[in-house]
């Protein structure tokens, strides 16, 4: 109902939403049809239906299901006496009885199928906790057997205070015969008497959070439907196991570490004396899920925005600190911690989150960066977003968006304290979280930096991120969110300025290796430290690193810190011939360099090609090169770039996509060259040739041909063939197909519907995907 607050039941006061009423079960009192016949005749029953005000039931008569709903504890069921079967001509027991729901079982046991398949079995309690983009099961007890010929039923899920269908917060789930991906649907999978089992499917972009469930039943005769509300709610989380979810992570070891591991290590100290402390994230502990949902609710983010992990992460980074929205933790760097707990005393997120929730949102005192990070890891993992705590040693704090760390001196080389707002911390801890970034150009998905420590405001709020680490590494600080601040933390130069007699400042020294050292996180599957500096920045002193720094600085408040190029007269672009490179062959692209000047130009192009998911997330680099280029005046030069098949054959993802990145600097003018080109390796089509006349009711056939483009054997090849109005979908197991071998499959079928039809086929195997074909067939009437 609008305005109704959904709650999770808890076995203790901690973890229960404040004000939640004790759970109740709805029992519907249903009058048996056979007993009705004994109490009143058919004429009186007809008259009562026509004019109920003139012919009311007597008080001693039991009520219809629509007349009375009792909220009671469910009594222990007692066996009913066996009733004699009706003789021929007598009315069947279920005829005329209005279909209604007696109870709903969400099959939410922690060890049950739903929780295990959805990887939520580690959560405390027996609530139904599921992940989006994946089917789940429920059982419904009815007052009589369900008949698809005469009855109808649908489910409804609602979340938030004002659920709306248009916002995705009020979901109407129809019953269907066949489930399809990426939509809300339900299918009856088992029926045993009055009990039915449903398989319910959700899309991978569903809103996450707490849902209330109701079941509506009715008749195809347009009589008024009845609705039964479940006494238990459903929690929907993000799904890193679902390929269509933007938080999908394709490595099981990483999912175990960054989603399911409830303990970790947080690093501190200095780059030469790195310390480590164990942190209890406790995302599955009693009361933590309720606390995380409470944080989302308190943030005032519209429930419709909770389907996008970018929005959710940004809100969480704001809500973990109490700076301007009464969030979880009060920051304190004063050294005086009276009235609270010293930040160094915490070693767990559990007590912090439970205390915040049990006090209905009173901020907990006190936290510093590692505490903010630890709590953020807990909340993100709890909600299903892969996350880790990350420590940066020698971490810069840029206060004026200059993308440099600036130190000011007066004419006598004495520091000017009121201008020296920038600082370099011995260490700073933030978070990485994993997601695709469809809001950014391709190649910027994957790990994103998010920082909950209140340092600087972003759009008027103390939050930071998510910032693409790929964008940080390349100096693409114009990409959202808060990429300039993160870039400055890890890769800004320290610039020293001296005041001139006229009041201006001149740059007197630049320190290029001052910040961003030994960026650390816990290794997967062990307590060892993993250095991930290379993900945030190129190697120090490399040309790529200098290009990134200078590229970033142009978008800061001091764009002239680095000398501008004397000219920008060299162009670089990548061309793809025809339909592009094909799977199984060397990938060949053309790099075209143009010198628009009347002088010779020289540069070295740094090239890197990386595997890329279709979501834009880069998986790993598989080839790096340095290409020296000399251009004569006004010369255009084409460089053939080749990626051998042997280098990519075991590296590709489902979409066989790759990203080629080029960067370089022109020696004579200092012009920076940069280009990113995404391309895919084309897979062969299945060739489908219809044979014979296409006539309704007359057998015809089609020949499907496939040639393996790879020089290796394809294992466990399966064809899938389907044609609406032609034949039902089915699989054909082919088995192994040798390198460069050809397979021919002949399908025999009888068209059942006239008009234009399509016969569709696809091939599936581990070594080769995205192989399909279609044939247009016009079917004539017989």
Summarize the structure.
This protein has 782 residues and is mainly beta.
Could you describe the 3D structure shown?
The protein has about 775 residues and is mainly beta. The chain contains 13 helices and 38 strands. The chain has four domains: about 100-235, Immunoglobulin-like; about 255-555, Coagulation Factor XIII, Chain A, domain 2; about 570-680, Sandwich (Immunoglobulin-like), CATH 2.60.40.10; about 685-780, Immunoglobulin-like. Strand 37 (about 755-765) and strand 38 (about 770-780) form a beta hairpin. Helix 5 (about 290-300) packs across helix 7. The longest helix is centred in the middle third of the chain and has 15 residues, at about 370-385. The two termini are about 55 Å apart.
Placed side by side, the strands forming the largest sheet appear as 20-19-18-16-23-24
Strands, total number: 38
The number of distinct structural domains comes to 4
Largest sheet, strands/sense/barrel: 6 strands, antiparallel
Euclidean distance between termini CA atoms: 55 Å
CATH topology of the largest domain: Coagulation Factor XIII, Chain A, domain 2
CATH architecture of the largest domain: Alpha-Beta Complex
Q: Looking at the structure, what is the overall shape?
A: flat
Which percent bin holds the helix content? 10-25%
CATH superfamily caption of the largest domain: Transglutaminase-like
């Amino acid at each position: 109902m609008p305005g109704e607050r959904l709650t999770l039941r808890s076995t203790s006061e901690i973890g229960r939403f404040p004000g939640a009423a004790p759970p109740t079960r709805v029992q519907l009192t249903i009058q048996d049809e056979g007993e009705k016949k004994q109490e009143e005749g058919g004429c009186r029953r007809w008259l009562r239906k026509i004019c109920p005000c003139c012919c009311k039931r007597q008080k001693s008569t039991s009520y219809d299901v629509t007349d009375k709903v009792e909220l009671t504890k469910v009594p222990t069921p007692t066996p009913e006496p066996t009733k004699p079967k009706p003789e021929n001509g007598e009315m069947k027991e279920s005829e005329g009885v209005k279909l209604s729901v007696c109870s709903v079982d969400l099959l939410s046991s922690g060890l049950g199928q739903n929780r295990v398949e959805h990887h939520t079995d580690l959560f405390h309690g027996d609530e139904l906790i599921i992940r989006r983009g994946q089917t789940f099961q429920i059982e419904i007890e009815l007052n009589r057997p369900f008949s698809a010929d005469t009855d109808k039923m649908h489910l409804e899920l609602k979340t938030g205070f004002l659920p709306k269908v248009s916002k995705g917060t009020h979901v109407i789930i129809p019953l269907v015969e066949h489930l399809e991906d990426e939509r809300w649907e339900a299918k009856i999978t088992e029926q045993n008497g009055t009990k039915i089992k449903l398989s319910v499917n959700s899309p991978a972009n569903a809103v996450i959070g707490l849902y209330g469930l109701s079941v509506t039943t009715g008749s195809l005769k347009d009589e008024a439907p009845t609705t039964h509300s479940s006494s238990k709610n459903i929690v929907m989380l993000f799904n890193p196991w679902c390929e269509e979810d933007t938080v999908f992570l394709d490595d099981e070891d990483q999912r175990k570490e960054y989603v399911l591991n409830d303990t970790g290590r947080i690093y501190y100290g200095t780059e030469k004396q790195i310390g480590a402390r164990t942190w209890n994230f406790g995302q599955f502990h009693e009361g933590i899920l309720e606390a995380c949902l409470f944080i989302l609710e308190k943030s005032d983010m519209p429930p419709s925005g909770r389907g996008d992990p970018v929005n959710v992460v940004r809100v969480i980074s704001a809500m973990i600190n109490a700076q301007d929205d009464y969030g979880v933790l009060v920051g304190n760097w004063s050294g005086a911690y009276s009235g609270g707990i010293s930040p160094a005393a915490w070693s767990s997120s559990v007590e912090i989150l439970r205390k915040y929730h049990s006090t209905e949102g009173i901020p907990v005192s006190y936290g510093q960066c590692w505490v903010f990070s630890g709590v953020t890891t807990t909340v993100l993992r709890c909600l299903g977003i892969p996350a880790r705590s990350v420590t940066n040693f020698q971490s810069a704090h840029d206060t004026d968006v200059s993308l440099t760390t600036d130190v000011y001196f007066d004419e006598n080389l004495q520091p000017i304290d009121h201008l020296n707002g920038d600082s370099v911390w011995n260490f700073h801890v933030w978070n990485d979280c994993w997601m695709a970034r469809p809001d950014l150009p391709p190649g910027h998905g994957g790990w994103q930096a998010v920082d909950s420590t209140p340092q600087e405001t972003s759009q008027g709020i103390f939050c930071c991120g998510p910032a693409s680490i790929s964008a940080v590494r390349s100096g693409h600080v114009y990409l959202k969110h808060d990429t300039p601040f993160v870039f400055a933390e890890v890769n800004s130069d320290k610039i020293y300025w001296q005041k001139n007699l006229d009041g201006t400042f001149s740059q007197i020294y630049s320190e290029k290796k001052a910040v961003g050292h030994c960026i650390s996180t816990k290794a997967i599957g062990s307590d060892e430290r993993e250095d991930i500096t290379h993900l945030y920045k190129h190697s120090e002193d490399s040309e790529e690193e200098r290009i990134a720094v200078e590229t970033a600085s142009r978008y800061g408040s001091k764009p002239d810190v680095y000398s501008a190029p004397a000219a920008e007269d060299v162009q670089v672009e990548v061309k793809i011939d025809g339909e592009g490179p094909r799977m199984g062959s060397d990938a060949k692209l053309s790099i075209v360099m143009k010198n628009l000047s009347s002088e010779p130009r020289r540069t070295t192009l740094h090239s890197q090609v990386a595997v890329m998911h279709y979501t834009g997330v880069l998986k790993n680099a598989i080839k790096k090169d340095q290409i020296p280029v000399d251009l004569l005046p006004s010369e255009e030069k084409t460089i053939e770039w080749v990626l051998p098949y042997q280098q990519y054959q075991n590296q590709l993802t489902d979409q066989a996509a790759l990203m080629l990145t080029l960067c370089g600097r022109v020696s004579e003018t200092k012009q920076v060259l940069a280009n990113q080109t995404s391309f895919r390796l084309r897979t062969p089509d299945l060739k489908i040739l219809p044979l014979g006349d296409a006539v309704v009711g007359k057998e015809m056939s089609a020949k499907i041909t496939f040639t393996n483009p790879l020089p290796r054997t394809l294992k466990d090849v399966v064809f899938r063939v389907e044609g609406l109005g032609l034949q039902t979908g089915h699989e054909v197991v082919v088995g192994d197909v040798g390198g460069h071998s050809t397979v021919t499959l002949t399908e025999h079928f009888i068209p059942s519907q006239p008009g234009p039809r399509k016969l569709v086929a696809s091939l599936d195997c581990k070594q080769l995907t995205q192989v399909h074909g279609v044939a247009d067939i016009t079917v004539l009437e017989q």
